[in-house]
Design brief:
about 500 residues, Aminopeptidase, alpha/beta, Glucose Oxidase, domain 1, disordered N terminus
């Protein structure tokens, strides 16, 4: 077959003649605006005729509970705690949240509604902090800096700033980090732990850094609260905008005096604080139980972690409170737990020390991060979809329980990953082996950040997770206790 190849001059003339084929660089355009509000655009799941009983579980109603809890956090922030805020165990926001939950339990009609009080050990409570980076001609106030939980404090440091890339062994080889402020960049979007970048914080600590900064590569300039990272020096997370500007300052100063970082972090170990587990129950017709657990505390507005979990728990309480006692085989215990984020896990520790409460428990359900928007990083911009995010899931029990769980998620369109988790990462980590246990959990781009607001919570996702849990509780009523247990090892 003959092939025709046009002369190069013809190709060049063609490219010149086609307008916009190679577009010139243009000024950034205004972002497109939604054609419809996202709240009106969520995809809805049609219920099968056999599942119409679950239509009363309404996601928009449940989202109101998320908004109530977010408002508690904001009140605490606005009443004198502008930097370290949220529904933090032991604070006024924690007690307001406990009273709010007690009120909801009583209004729903639960029995034995009560607070189980705990004396907290001294709590890490940062009072204030500031970070600024300066060159000879420029100073940047680093407003996104957030100290990692339990970070050591300092009365004041003035350090040379260095960029350690991704904090890998290769990035750190031959580097002199002793006594310096070390910045490293992480695309480990979902980590808020010491494991970020394969243990970069420990590697940098071991090289003698005087302060460490994690630049989390989530677009914008968000504030992110990390768990304890095991650092021996003041350690902070940074937003991408601030972090990129600092790395640029370091890069531009290669032939000049390097930037200096001034750091203050006033931290106290506050004694005498208290918190509580909030209990309520719906009696059944047997001495067997189902436990529904949701931790109450959270950082910032904590809409997903764990406003959604508490909302799901309340949705289940409302649903089953409308079912007559003689049609409830098992007593359902509802627990709003405390100490999840402060690391001492008062509720979880007490439950682990009293495993006898689970001797006749047919199922433990952990309601934690039960719904958030699917968010996609697209061309440097985070876009929210009109569908819930995919959830990590765990089920520990008999093959019969596994079958019930999988079919319930499918019945309501709960998006899950192909493979379940080996163990549940969450509030029931200390107790899941005491009884058959399940959970769904989301940890998205905005997890533990000041962007984790009610705006990213889809009512349809809340609805799906809560309906699925309700269906599971109802369907295990037809299964004997022994047939729900884990197979022998």
């Amino acid at each position: 077959m003959l092939r025709f190849s046009p002369p190069l001059s013809v190709i060049c003339l063609t490219l010149i003649a086609v307008p916009g084929l190679f577009a010139q660089t243009r000024a950034p355009q205004e972002p497109m605006k939604p054609l419809h509000p996202l709240e009106e655009s969520y995809l809805r799941w049609n219920l099968a005729p056999a599942d119409q009983a679950y239509a009363s579980i309404d996601g928009r109603h449940l989202k109101g509970y998320v908004e109530d809890q977010s408002a508690i956090s904001r009140r605490y922030r606005d009443n004198g705690h502008p930097q370290f805020w949220g529904r933090i165990a032991g604070t006024e926001a924690d007690e307001e949240n406990a009273q709010w939950l007690l009120g909801r339990f009583r209004k729903i009609g639960l029995s034995d509604v009560r607070q189980q009080a705990f004396d907290l050990p001294p709590q890490w409570m940062p009072q204030s902090w500031s970070v600024a980076v300066a060159t000879d001609d420029k100073t940047l106030a680093v407003t996104s800096a957030q100290p990692t939980y339990r970070s050591p404090g300092t009365d004041g440091l003035d350090l040379e700033a260095v960029d350690a890339g991704f904090g890998t062994e290769g990035d750190l080889a031959g580097r002199d980090l002793r006594g310096k402020a070390v910045f490293f960049y992480s695309t480990d979007y979902f980590s808020r732990h010491s494991t970020i970048n394969g243990g970069a914080i420990k590697r940098i600590n071991d090289k003698g850094a005087a302060s460490i900064f994690v630049i989390l590569a989530v677009p914008g300039n968000i504030k992110t609260q990390f768990y304890p990272v095991g650092s021996k020096v003041p350690t902070f997370s940074l937003g991408l905008q601030d972090g990129s500007a600092i790395r640029e300052m370091i890069g531009q100063a290669r032939d000049r005096k390097p930037p200096r970082v001034k750091i203050k972090l006033d931290v106290t170990q506050q004694p005498g604080m208290k918190s509580s587990t909030v209990w309520g129950s719906l009696p059944g017709t047997s001495d067997e139980t189902v436990f529904v657990i949701a931790h109450r505390d959270g950082w910032f507005e904590a809409a997903n972690d764990n406003g959604t979990g508490v909302a799901t728990m309340l949705g289940l309480a409302e649903f089953f409170a409308k079912i007559p006692k003689d049609r409830r085989r098992r007593t359902i215990q509802f627990l709003g737990t405390t100490g999840h984020h402060d690391g001492t896990a008062e509720s979880g520790t007490w439950l682990a020390q009293h495993k006898e409460v689970f001797e006749k428990t047919a199922l433990i359900i952990n309601c934690e991060h039960t719904a958030a928007n699917e968010m996609v990083l697209n061309n440097g911009v985070i876009q929210k979809s009109n569908w819930p995010s995919t959830l990590t899931w765990y089920v520990g029990g008999s093959p019969k329980l596994e079958d019930i769980v999988v079919k319930a998620y499918a019945a309501f369109g709960v998006p899950t990953y192909e493979i379940p988790a080996r163990t549940p990462a969450g509030e029931i980590g200390r107790i899941y082996q005491f009884a058959p246990s399940i959970q769904l959990i989301d940890t998205g781009l905005y997890w533990h950040s000041d962007h984790e607001t009610a705006d990213i919570i889809p009512p349809t996702g809340l609805e799906a997770s809560t309906r699925a849990y309700a269906k599971i509780i109802r369907e295990i009523d037809a299964v004997d206790f022994k047939d729900l247990q884990r197979p022998p090892k």
